[in-house]
Design brief:
By secondary structure, this protein is of the alpha+beta class. The chain folds into two domains: 2-190, D-amino Acid Aminotransferase, Chain A, domain 1; 201-366, D-amino Acid Aminotransferase, subunit A, domain 2 (D-amino Acid Aminotransferase, Chain A, domain 2). It has helices at 87-91, 113-126, 134-147, 223-238, 284-295, 307-316, 353-366, and strands at residues 30-31, 58-65, 68-76, 94-96, 99-104, 107-111, 159-168, 181-190, 201-206, 243-247, 255-258, 261-267, 270-273, 299-302, 319-326, 330-339, 342-345, 377-379. The strands form two sheets. Strands 1, 2, 3, 4, 5, 6, 7, 8 and 18 form a nine-stranded mixed beta sheet that branches. It has a six-stranded mixed beta barrel with strand order 9-10-11-12-15-16, surrounded by four helices. Strand 5 (99-104) and strand 6 form a beta hairpin. Helix 2 (113-126) crosses helix 3 (134-147) and helix 5 (284-295) packs across helix 7. The protein is globular and about 60 Å long. The relative contact order is 0.14. Bound molecules: pyridoxal-5'-phosphate. Pyridoxal-5'-phosphate is lined by residues 98, 221, 257, 260-262, 281, 283-286, 326-327. Pyridoxal-5'-phosphate binds at residues 98, 221, 257, 260-262, 281, 283-286, 326-327.
Length: 381
């Protein structure tokens, strides 16, 4: 299963088959089920659980050593056993993905999962880690979801959050790429991001701290990026805001991302989002928003946009809407920006029309409520 991303999503593999694009690298998936009477109680009210704190009965894992992946298994959710010298614990060689599974009647749906597994490969390459074959990634995830189908909540706006992760496990205190790794996937039932309904968030524009530098690892979903972002998050909270708007590291001028989401600015003429680079995470929701907005007939520009242009546009009213987007919230309307001691309210803190329309259409496509003309939704069957 050490291969490239070509042909992703084209193999219609059946249950308990071998997962591979090349027969010589075929990998078997062993399944060890929790006894029915040992299964955990599903949460009575998914709206009450804090994000990512409750996990399903089973997880998936595979190990890498001697240059190959092996021991792929679905097994009971359990703690890991790791050497205290495991390289991931010291030097952060670890990557992950985030996606959601939705249930609609008998259907179980994933949204563009091949993109997540392509990005996992890109993150792995950047962090000098072995690749996961995306066919294996998707097909083994589907198998896990078939087993955990009843863990997918059906309350509107809720889903089963999927967290594929890879960590360096070799016990060694020298800084180097590890020779052994663990890949695992855990599942967490989650409620809608906005519990009390869709409502605008207040944002802190960070001028003192940055998320990513050119030539760095900002485009990889690697663990250290999130640890590095926490401090600015405490600054955001000190001024009563909930998330950080990141500016570029070199000029502290150009918009990059918002928290762990991509960011969009809407004017009368165009929808603007910063262009992809190695300082920006290549969001799948971002790509989907661009496609939808273009289909609405709007001018979408992937161009650099400065904080000065944004502040001026908010002042003059030229900027009508701003929002962040990512798997967790899907779309998060931005109500205000706190920038150098001043709060700038965007269009009276109301949720904009385009923001609302994108949220409605994306979530309806993701949950199978409306037809998907883009071929984004994948049925787990
Ligand atoms: C995951 C992530 C996003 C959003 O990506 P999606 O594929 O839309 O979920 C944006 N920015 C950062 C930093 C992220 O980690």
């Amino acid at each position: 299963m050490f291969c490239d991303a070509s042909g992703v999503g084209t193999l219609g593999l059946k249950r308990k088959e071998r997962f591979s694009t090349h027969s010589e690298t075929a990998m078997k998936l062993d399944i060890e089920l929790v006894a029915e009477d040992m299964r955990r109680e599903k949460p009575a009210d998914v709206l009450q659980i804090p994000f990512g704190t409750v996990f399903s009965d089973h997880m998936l894992s595979a190990t890498y050593s001697d240059g190959e992946w092996k021991d792929a298994r679905i097994h009971p959710f359990r703690d890991l056993s790791l050497s205290p010298a495991a390289l991931c614990l010291h030097y952060g060689q670890g990557i992950f993905e985030g996606m959601k599974a939705y249930r609609r009647g008998e259907r179980v749906l994933l949204f563009r999962p091949e993109r997540n597994f392509e990005r996992l490969i890109q993150s792995a390459d950047r962090m000098v880690m072995p690749r996961i074959d995306p066919i294996f990634g998707i097909e083994s995830l589907k198998e896990l979801l078939r087993i955990e189908r009843d863990w997918i909540p059906q309350v509107p706006g809720s889903s089963l959050y999927v967290r594929p992760t890879m960590i360096a496990t070799e016990p060694k205190l020298g800084v180097k790429p590890a020779s052994s790794y663990l890949y695992f996937v855990v599942l967490a039932p989650v409620g809608p991001y906005f519990k009390g309904g869709f409502s605008p968030v207040d944002i802190y524009v960070s001028t003192d701290h940055v998320r990513a530098v050119r030539g760095g690892v900002g485009a990889a979903k690697t663990m250290g990026n999130y640890a590095a972002s926490l401090y600015a998050g405490t600054k955001a909270q000190e001024v009563g805001t909930s998330q950080v708007l990141w500016l570029d590291a070199h000029e502290r001028k150009w918009l990059e991302e918002m928290g762990t989401s991509n960011v969009f600015v809407v004017t009368e003429e165009e929808v603007v989002t910063p262009p992809l680079s190695d300082t920006i995470l290549h969001g799948i929701t971002r790509d989907s928003v661009i496609t939808l907005a273009r289909d609405y007939g709007m001018q979408v520009s992937e161009r650099p946009i400065s904080i000065d242009e944004v502040i001026e546009g908010i002042d003059t009213g030229a900027i009508r809407e701003m929002f962040g987007c990512g798997t967790a919230a899907v779309i998060a309307p931005i109500g205000s920006l706190w920038f150098k001691g001043t709060r700038y309210e965007i269009a009276g803190r109301a949720t904009g029309q385009l923001t609302q329309r994108l949220f409605n259409d994306l979530t309806r496509i993701q949950t199978g409520e409306i037809d998907d003309p883009y071929g984004w939704v994948v049925d787990v069957n």
